[in-house]
Amino acid sequence: MLKGKSLIDPMDFTLEELELVFELSNDIIENPKKYSTICNGKLLATLFYEPSTRTRLSFEAAMLRLGGEVLGFSDVNSSSVSKGESLADTIRTVGCYADIIAMRHPKEGAAKVASTHSSIPVINAGDGGHQHPTQTLTDLLTIKNIKGNFSNHTIGLCGDLKFGRTVHSLVKALSRYENNRFILISPEELKIPDYIKQEILEKNNIEFIEVDRLEKIIDELDILYMTRVQKERFFNEEDYVRLKGSYILNEEKMRKAKQDMIILHPLPRVNEISNEIDKDPRACYFKQARFGMFVRMALICKLLGVWVDVEYR
Ligand code: CP
């Protein structure tokens, strides 16, 4: 039962619980009307201490499509955070008004802290360079629906693997399935953190290699997960400018890729995927953004427990 739970880390749900979320997502995709009033009278609070397009708007669209309502802030300067209010007090207060919270914060661990002060479920919509579990649900639903399963894949993760929280969450999540192999493609300065390598990959005997050139290994990949170099997490502009053009996926590189490889990207992109690739049938990143709304609909239903209510009506 997921009712009343928070989602802070992709490992918070068991594989069985994840499967139920994906099943519900696909039922919502097929039968949207069945769910259009299921959250009547429920309120989602979106507390975004950092900018967002997809995560905030897909959460809001998700709740509205379920018949619920939304409130919140997308700019801390319009909230009492700007007067110095603590995260704990903000969360306690929002718990007096809403039924569920989706929050993004620049500090690693902020969502975890929030959940300890909250009387209602908290969903981590990204905490600094740490985790982004609902992006992972989005990525997994996309992989399930396009590739058919989560196992036996060679997955290339390319770009900013150091600060890319979506990468950290996805590696954790895919490591739970059988016989996946990871190719970690990044410049030296943006390699995946040691804790992911040691505590997730090495500890579980998962095959992985680290390389610095995409074109050398693109032909091996079943899934290519591109990421943006995270300007907002750099301490100096010079390093960002030097690294931002490290990997650009273009038609020349795609000619070497398998015909059934899929390209995913959490978005936003800057320059790492040329616009010419968008028309390639292997480019799945806008389909992925759409799946994100449906999986967030399913997640809201599960955490609020409204789906169980309907099943027994
Ligand atoms: N993928 C993602 O988190 O996008 P936003 O930053 O626009 O929410």
Bound compounds, please? phosphoric acid mono(formamide)ester
The radius of gyration is 19 Å
User: What is the CATH level 1 assignment of the largest domain?
Assistant: Alpha Beta
Side-by-side strand order of the widest sheet: 7-6-5-8-9
Tally of distinct domains:
2
The overall pLDDT, averaged over residues, is 94
Order of helices and strands: HEHEHEHEHEHEHEHEHHEHH
Inertia-based shape: globular
Residues in helices, as a percent range: 25-40%
User: Which parts are unreliable, with pLDDT below 50 for 5 consecutive residues or more?
Assistant: none
Class from secondary-structure proportions: alpha/beta
Would you give an account of this structure?
It catalyses: carbamoyl phosphate + L-aspartate = N-carbamoyl-L-aspartate + phosphate + H(+). Residues 5-144 form the Aspartate/ornithine carbamoyltransferase carbamoyl-P binding domain. Its EC number is 2.1.3.2. With 313 residues, this protein is of the alpha/beta class. The protein folds into two domains: 10-132 and 292-311, Aspartate/ornithine carbamoyltransferase (Rossmann fold, 3-Layer(aba) Sandwich); 133-289, Rossmann fold, CATH 3.40.50. Helix content is 38%, strand content 14%. It has twelve helices and nine strands. The protein has helices spanning 15-30, 54-65, 87-94, 110-116, 133-147, 165-174, 194-202, 214-217, 237-243, 251-254, 285-304, 306-311; strands at residues 43-48, 69-73, 100-105, 122-127, 154-158, 181-185, 208-211, 223-226, 262-264. Strands 7-6-5-8-9 form a five-stranded parallel sheet, covered by helices on one side. Strands 2-1-3-4 form a four-stranded parallel sheet, sandwiched between helices. Helix 5 packs across helix 6. The longest helix has 20 residues, at 285-304. The radius of gyration is 19 Å and the shape is globular. The model has no long low-confidence stretch (mean pLDDT 94).
